[in-house]
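ok here's the first one, seq then struct tokens
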Amino acid sequence: MAPAAPVKEPLWSGTVRVERGRAGDHSDIYQMLLAVFHGPSREEFHAAQDDPAYEPANRLLVKRTGRCVAHVQLVPRTILFGSLRLPADQLAWLVTLPEFRSQGIAGHLLSAANRAMTADGTQFGMLRTRIPHFFRRWGWAVCGRHSRSRAKARQILAHYSAAPELRRQPLNIRLWRHVELPALMRIYAQNTAAATGPLQRTEAYWRWLIGRKAFDHIIVALAGPDKLELNEATAPIVGYAVVRQNRVVELLADPAYPTAGPQLLARACADAIEHDQHDLILESPPHDPLHKFLTDAGGQFHHHEADDQEVFMMRLSDPAGLMRRMGPLLTERWQAAGMSRRCELGLAVGEQKHLLTVGRRGATWATGRLGRNFIACNRAEFTRLVLGHCDPAEAAGQNRLTASTQVALQWAGILFPRVGLWRPTWDDLTA
């Protein structure tokens, strides 16, 4: 018989006792979420418990007389960050019952969540919210941009029909079959191998993501005849699109088949028109050429921090640990820029002083000193800088960051460039 898992002690924040959740709390938590948010659906709530990374202890609770009055959930994830794989926690379902608000309980819960993330070894937390001002007080920074295009379905089809080069490599477009999951996994891995922001998806996660059914259908593009091929090595699937109503929430294709994307979009447009939906929305990385395809069809591209007042936010749980994990990536960037000399870049983050040294033999991180060449900013700007949300020169021009020398600013631009920080929408959809 396996030994019982150790029980984690409560997390205290001031005078507020924050408890780790247990399986027996699920019913009480669901009723609280339903009373405040009128959701999630019962199916979605149970689907969350089937997540391969789910543990009841990742729910943090405040109770009064045995009743749950506040709750937040930490969802363990792994983020693809260039060549790195970084552990992170997604903050979800922060709620306090109305009769217990204005007592600072949510703040105590966030403080406990921040400590729990650090204790669990995650590099940073992430969330989506329409009240960023609340989370800023607890060390969270707006980080990440929405990326989507919108155009009229009929205009997209007309633009597609007027471009015969898109049909010189005709593909067979049809609905996806469950036995073809390995093909979706392969294409996702091809497109996200060096990306910044998407989640790492294991096979178990893929099966959970599809099983929770937060989409209408998946269409695939095949290069070759439409036949059932159980051997993934010879499967002809070269692209896929996940569709929910008139939104294409994920579209990825084998880079060797550049026409797969437009052909999948054309099929999605035809389906939208059949269901009397006049617009088509594509949600994909900002560098995706399909955005230009839609804007050329008279559409609009949206790439901003806020979308319908919703923003992405992140918080570094362990800045020093993250910088050490990023050592190989920083060395890659330094060498790719053709820099032969060693750099010592100081980072003044609030009242804290750090020194980052990068050279041929790697990168090191020390605290307590700056050196001659340094940059200074607050913790929120440091979060955006490290995670590639902002360009150092742009931040300096807007007085969000100061540099002791032009050399320091140049080095910061090499080590911390703005990258296409982007997360697929599909992972965050609710059923």
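and now the second one, same deal
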Amino acid sequence: MSQIKIGIIGYGNLGRGTEAALKQNPDMELFGVFTRRDPQSIAPASKDTKVYHLDDLSAFTGEIDVLILCGGSTNDLPAMTPVLARSFNVVDSFDTHAKIPEHFAAVDSAAKDGGTIAVISAGWDPGLFSLNKAVSEAMLPSGANYAFWGYGVSQGHSEAIRRVDGVLDARQYTVPIEAALEAVRSGAMPELTTREKHLRLCYVAAEDGADTERIEREIVTMPYYFDEYNTEVRFISIDELERDHQGLPHGGNLFRTGKTGLNEENTQVIECRLQLDSNPEFTSSILVAYARAAYRLQQEGQSGCRTVLDIAPAHLLPMSPKEMRAKFL
């Protein structure tokens, strides 16, 4: 059987993670990396990885089975995913929760026009956590969902800070508030505001002479990212940032607390926990699995946009149904 040919769009943390993840999937091969930068300036981790300019992508229509889009959710993916979905099967990790319906509609229209499959928001939240929420709520319809993120670096939020004028670089850590987490784990069903669940801690290296008061104000009032949280901004030098904040750990806890019994006398708690040394490498691994699903759905003659809620687990694995039944049931 021929291998699934994957193109990577962008070669930042997600792009590098995707390159590594493909090495663990023998039914896939990396066609190449496409970048807006000078291809000669890119030094891929694997010496046999080919690098092309993004402007050359159209020349490979029909040769690439799936594109994995490794851009940011603030500016890149809202524009890039619908455009590319007209010509290629695509997968992205769009993570601005409030704008997912809008993004889905734009991508779905483009993919249907192009006869392609597009999978959006295939990360771990949104993504795997979304899937766990849905399954848990189906099992425990009388109850409540709780999600806690961190302690770890949010790539999307860090990228949003870097786009603020005057910012050289930044890392944003999401910090769960322990008292709230333990209250939920105990089986209680407290009503928690966004501010009561998390603190957002931002380490920012500003340009020389930049107005740090303005930068801080723009960060803490940024819609969809920081305005609903208690947000702490700490300005440090670029040397400190590069020395102390180069890792990209993350994780989270997802709970469904429900009641069962004729009188709902019994409490049931489902907990899903992630502890990640490398957020981008884990997210990249998810993208690769859903790229396989996108390819299979397109081979079945389907088109349009999909999310993790629409795709059966069987489409994610490089196994036959018989092999899956023997291994997982």
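notes on #2: The first strand starts at residue 4 and ends at 9. DSSP finds eleven helices and 14 strands in the chain.
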